């Protein structure tokens, strides 16, 4: 089996999902890297390859279904369910809370794997875990393509990520890249000027 961290870095970098440089994030913070994991799912062969590698981390576990939070985890959830040959559902926000809609249901006693493309704080994943438990399912694990927490997130179940990273982020006045005069980019837009 290919080493997952190296595999994920290579694929995500080659596809342009993982970028290094000087970025202004949506939060306003500055960072030396930017991750747009959705780019991976533009490429079916590569997303299948990475999701199959992640599924191997759960080999030997009985899993009845894969559940994910919308929007980021929807395509990944499908790919993971396909790799594991199990049913797939996703949760959506309704009135500020995660819920199963569109006729999705979970049976008491079903064993569920929760997946998300990128985990930073784990908030959406925790909501899906609680939703599943509230329906009587047993959550057997969590999987992600990227763990941006640097391994600090704990879901109380086994958590496997293909790639673990800890992205540095600074307020503009503390940014070492600004002090060096490096041009800043806001992802999704043209280059910004200081």
From TrEMBL:
<comment type="similarity">
    <text>Belongs to the purine/pyrimidine phosphoribosyltransferase family. PyrE subfamily.</text>
</comment>
<keyword id="KW-0665">Pyrimidine biosynthesis</keyword>
<dbReference type="GO" id="GO:0044205">
    <property type="term" value="P:'de novo' UMP biosynthetic process"/>
</dbReference>
<comment type="pathway">
    <text>Pyrimidine metabolism; UMP biosynthesis via de novo pathway; UMP from orotate: step 1/2.</text>
</comment>
<dbReference type="InterPro" id="IPR000836">
    <property type="entry name" value="PRTase_dom"/>
</dbReference>
<dbReference type="InterPro" id="IPR029057">
    <property type="entry name" value="PRTase-like"/>
</dbReference>
<dbReference type="GO" id="GO:0000287">
    <property type="term" value="F:magnesium ion binding"/>
</dbReference>
<comment type="function">
    <text>Catalyzes the transfer of a ribosyl phosphate group from 5-phosphoribose 1-diphosphate to orotate, leading to the formation of orotidine monophosphate (OMP).</text>
</comment>
<keyword id="KW-0460">Magnesium</keyword>
<protein>
    <recommendedName>
        <fullName>Orotate phosphoribosyltransferase</fullName>
        <ecNumber>2.4.2.10</ecNumber>
    </recommendedName>
</protein>
<comment type="subunit">
    <text>Homodimer.</text>
</comment>
<keyword id="KW-0328">Glycosyltransferase</keyword>
<dbReference type="Pfam" id="PF00156">
    <property type="entry name" value="Pribosyltran"/>
</dbReference>
<feature type="binding site" description="in other chain">
    <location>
        <begin position="116"/>
        <end position="124"/>
    </location>
    <ligand>
        <name>5-phospho-alpha-D-ribose 1-diphosphate</name>
    </ligand>
</feature>
<feature type="binding site">
    <location>
        <position position="148"/>
    </location>
    <ligand>
        <name>orotate</name>
    </ligand>
</feature>
<dbReference type="InterPro" id="IPR023031">
    <property type="entry name" value="OPRT"/>
</dbReference>
<feature type="domain" description="Phosphoribosyltransferase">
    <location>
        <begin position="48"/>
        <end position="152"/>
    </location>
</feature>
<dbReference type="GO" id="GO:0004588">
    <property type="term" value="F:orotate phosphoribosyltransferase activity"/>
</dbReference>
<keyword id="KW-0808">Transferase</keyword>
<dbReference type="InterPro" id="IPR006273">
    <property type="entry name" value="Orotate_PRibTrfase_bac"/>
</dbReference>
<dbReference type="GO" id="GO:0019856">
    <property type="term" value="P:pyrimidine nucleobase biosynthetic process"/>
</dbReference>
<feature type="binding site">
    <location>
        <position position="120"/>
    </location>
    <ligand>
        <name>orotate</name>
    </ligand>
</feature>
């Amino acid at each position: 089996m290919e080493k997952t961290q190296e595999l994920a870095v290579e694929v995500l970098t080659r596809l342009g999902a993982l970028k290094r440089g000087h970025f202004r994030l949506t939060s306003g913070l500055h960072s030396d890297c930017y991750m747009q994991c959705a780019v991976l799912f533009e490429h079916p062969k590569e997303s299948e390859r990475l999701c199959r590698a992640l599924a191997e981390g759960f080999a030997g576990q009985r899993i009845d279904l894969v559940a994910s939070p919308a929007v980021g985890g929807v395509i990944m959830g499908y790919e993971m369910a396909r790799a594991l040959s199990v049913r797939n559902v996703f949760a959506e926000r309704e009135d500020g809370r995660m819920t199963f809609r569109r006729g999705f249901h979970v049976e008491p006693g079903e064993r569920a794997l929760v997946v998300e493309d990128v985990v930073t704080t784990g908030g959406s994943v925790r909501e899906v875990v609680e939703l599943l438990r509230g329906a009587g399912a047993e959550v057997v694990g969590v999987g992600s393509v990227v763990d941006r927490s640097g391994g600090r997130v704990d879901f109380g179940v086994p958590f496997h990520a293909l790639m673990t990273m800890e992205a540095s982020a600074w307020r503009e006045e503390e940014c070492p890249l600004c002090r060096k005069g490096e041009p800043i980019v806001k992802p999704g837009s043209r280059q910004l000027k200081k």
